[in-house]
Amino acid sequence: MADTDCTVNHWSFPVSLYTRNGVAEACLALQDQAGVDVCVLLAALLAARIRQRPLSATEVAQADQHVQAWRTQVVLPLRAIRRRLKTGPQPAPTDATDALRQSVKACELAAERLQLEALAACLDGLPNAAPADDPTDDPAEASAGQRLANLTQTAYRVLSHFAPDPQDPAALPALQALARQVAAAAQDVPLQHPCHRDG
Questions:
Q1: Residues in CB range of 167: below 8 A, 6 or more apart
Q2: pLDDT score at 1
Q3: DSSP collapsed to 3 states, the chain
Q4: Which of 114, 160, 116, 126 is nearest to 47 (CA)?
Q5: How would you write the pLDDT of the chain (199 residues) with one tens digit per residue?
Q6: Which residues contact 10 (CB under 8 A, 6 or more apart)?
Q7: pLDDT at 4
Q8: Nearest 5°: phi and psi at 52?
Q9: Largest CA distance in the chain
Q10: What does residue 85 show for φ and ψ, rounded to 5 degrees?
Q11: How far is residue 77's CA from residue 54's CA, in Å, rounded to a whole number?
């Protein structure tokens, strides 16, 4: 996939994936229950699709480190303000404070888009998968199976990065199922090529 890169797809891929059935809910559950940065998850899945291999734990950690300051100093404070305005403090909630909340939400979304752009630039430097040594009987089937395996491994590594020791180990299978759900949805999201750049 030399003609496809993370930078070109940094916005179209996450938006398309996030709007698929059940993905938004799964991502928000991973965010709220395990502290997963959804932008890192979506960008890592994009990179796994393009590079045709799973990301390593080190690559996930490097991507996270690349945007950690932006997340903690910009994205998370905007999210906290947006969520707080839903119920208070006084004079919220009112129609006027809801309008302010919507403005903060737009700023949060813009900040996440910039974070995805930074992640794409970081992940574009990753190498592609090595060519397969053994040809298979059905390359299309093997390719689809390998794609899902790559995406699932990547999603698990992102989950493990953000929640290496879950507070409730009994919750881990449910969190892994959520990560698997997002990975499965990512396997057929269309990718753009450089000549079709998203503005």
A1: none
A2: 39
A3: CCCCCHHHHCCHHHHHHHCCCCHHHHHHHHHHHHCCCHHHHHHHHHHHHHHCCCCCHHHHHHHHHHHHHHHHHHHHHHHHHHHHCCCCCCCCCCHHHHHHHHHHHHHHHHHHHHHHHHHHHHHCCCCCCCCCCCCCCCHHHHHHHHHHHHHHHHHHHHHHHHCCCCCCHHHHHHHHHHHHHHHHHHCCCCCCCHHHCCC
A4: 126
A5: 344 688 899 999 999 999 999 999 999 999 999 999 999 999 999 999 999 999 999 999 999 999 999 999 999 999 999 999 999 899 999 999 999 999 999 999 999 999 999 999 999 989 988 776 555 554 455 588 999 999 999 999 999 999 988 778 888 999 999 999 999 999 999 998 776 444 4
A6: 43, 46, 116, 117, 119, 120
A7: 61
A8: 60, 40
A9: 66
A10: -65, -15
A11: 31
Tokens 């919507």 belong to which residue? 102
